[in-house]
């Protein structure tokens, strides 16, 4: 029997990454442990051949890269892109709501979660807190993770909604607000969330300026299926691809060009933020790498022309209860290998050229490949590929591992697929 090392590592990576800020924090630690140097975007960069570096954008996005031996203008950038965010709920600035002696929290949804999957689960809260400092332009930032289950969104009893099993329409301002507890002396009448934060990170309430806090399920990921073939875990979309990209970048032998891993934030809300794919964040970093190596703009554009990006975001597998939802001739299965995502309207960046390249990479790595196309009468999603490709004007493919329950609080992927895609990414970086 396989030992599923990669799947287990993925599960523990996800379990310790309850918010995009924690994802980046964990990426930083692993990169540092593997000899990568943290570059301050505000300082002048002095990069060297064979160097390993990373830089962080707004605490929730990260670009890591390894500089090869040969001239980048001829060998180009080999890039893998993924995203750090997942759909869920964000806590509003003044969230306290009192109903009799109950306290509930006012939240808004982030991205497109499957709402009913969040009900009746022990949930916790994680994110970042901004604290007063000497310099108003640079508040102190702290990560926060309550770890313990402290909130829950209770469903309405079937006795009060007899038609519940015929389908429920959820109102995000009414049906999905989490219960925090009952009024108590300790947490007083007002600012309970501020009190909880202050207690958790050991600061005074007056020091707290603001926060970005998200709900998350405390139920850990696990391996399941009669042959241990499935991974059941929160946030597989897209932390599975972040983890796979990280593994490949760290372990790939130095390549001829520059290997890059970009982990964007905000894919789930359209990528149009300064740390999202629809921003100059990646192009700025790539150009700075060239400038620091003593190259010019002409070299930068030559490098882009020689570059290739794998946009890695999870893909839909055929659902055994809804076979009719898949295209009649393309139906990826879990553990059938990475999925190339194709769309005639270019909601995915893939074209025959970039697909041909990735298929050859997989063939050489001994990895099977599948293809996904939407049914012609169904609108599909999009991802970071077309946005990055448009920003940079580079060759790009959209791929991802096949999964079920996308955007549920708990998603289902394949143990074998995780190994496959890491192998394909390593083979790509070694080209
Ligand atoms: Zn995604």
Automatic annotation (TrEMBL):
It comes from the Bacteria. It holds the Pfam family Peptidase_M18. It is an enzyme of class 3 (hydrolase). Keywords: Aminopeptidase, Hydrolase, Metal-binding, Metalloprotease, Protease, Zinc. Gene3D superfamilies: Aminopeptidase i, Domain 2, Zn peptidases. Its cofactor is Zn(2+). SUPFAM superfamilies: Aminopeptidase/glucanase lid domain, Zn-dependent exopeptidases. GO terms for molecular function: aminopeptidase activity. Its EC number is 3.4.11.-. InterPro entries: Peptidase_M18 (IPR001948), Peptidase_M18_dom2 (IPR023358). Belongs to the peptidase M18 family. This is M18 family aminopeptidase.
């Amino acid at each position: 029997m396989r030992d599923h090392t990669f799947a287990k590592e993925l599960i523990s990576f996800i379990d310790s990454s309850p918010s995009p800020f924690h994802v980046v924090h964990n990426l930083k630690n692993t990169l540092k442990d593997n000899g990568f140097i943290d570059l301050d975007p505000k300082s002048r960069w002095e990069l060297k051949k064979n160097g390993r570096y990373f830089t962080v954008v707004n605490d929730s996005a990260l670009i890591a890269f390894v500089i090869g031996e040969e001239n980048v203008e001829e060998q180009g950038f080999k890039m893998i892109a993924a995203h750090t965010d997942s759909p869920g709920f964000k806590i509003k600035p003044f969230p306290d709501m009192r109903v009799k002696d109950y306290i509930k929290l006012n939240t808004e949804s982030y991205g497109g979660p499957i709402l009913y999957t969040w009900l009746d689960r022990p949930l916790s809260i994680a994110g970042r807190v901004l604290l007063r400092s000497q310099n108003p332009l640079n508040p102190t930032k702290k990560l926060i993770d309550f770890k313990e289950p402290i909130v829950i969104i209770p469903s309405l009893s079937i006795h009060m909604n007899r038609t519940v099993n015929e389908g429920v329409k959820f109102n995000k301002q009414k049906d999905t607000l989490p219960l925090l507890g009952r009024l108590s002396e300790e947490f007083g009448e007002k600012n309970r969330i501020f009190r909880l934060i202050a207690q958790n990170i050991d600061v005074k309430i007056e020091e707290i300026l603001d926060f970005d806090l998200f709900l998350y399920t405390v139920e850990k990921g696990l391996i399941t299926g009669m042959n241990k073939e499935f991974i059941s875990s929160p946030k597989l979309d897209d932390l599975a691809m972040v983890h796979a990209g990280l593994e490949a970048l760290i372990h790939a032998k130095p390549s001829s060009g520059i290997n890059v891993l970009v982990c964007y934030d905000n894919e789930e809300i359209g990528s149009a933020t300064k740390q999202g794919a629809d921003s100059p964040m990646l192009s700025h970093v790539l150009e700075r790498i060239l400038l620091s190596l003593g190259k010019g703009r002409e070299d930068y554009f030559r490098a882009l022309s020689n570059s290739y990006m794998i946009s890695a975001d999870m893909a839909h597998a055929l659902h055994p209860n809804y076979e009719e939802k898949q295209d009649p001739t393309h139906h990826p299965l879990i553990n059938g290998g990475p999925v190339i995502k194709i769309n005639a309207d270019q909601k995915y960046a893939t074209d025959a050229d970039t697909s041909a390249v990735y298929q050859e990479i997989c063939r050489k790595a001994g990895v099977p490949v599948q293809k996904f196309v939407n049914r012609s009468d169904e609108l599909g999603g999009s991802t970071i590929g077309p946005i990055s490709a448009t920003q940079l004007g580079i060759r790009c493919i959209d791929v991802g591992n096949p999964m079920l329950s996308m955007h549920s609080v708990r998603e289902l992927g394949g143990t074998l697929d995780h190994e496959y895609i890491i192998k394909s990414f390593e083979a790509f970086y070694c080209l």
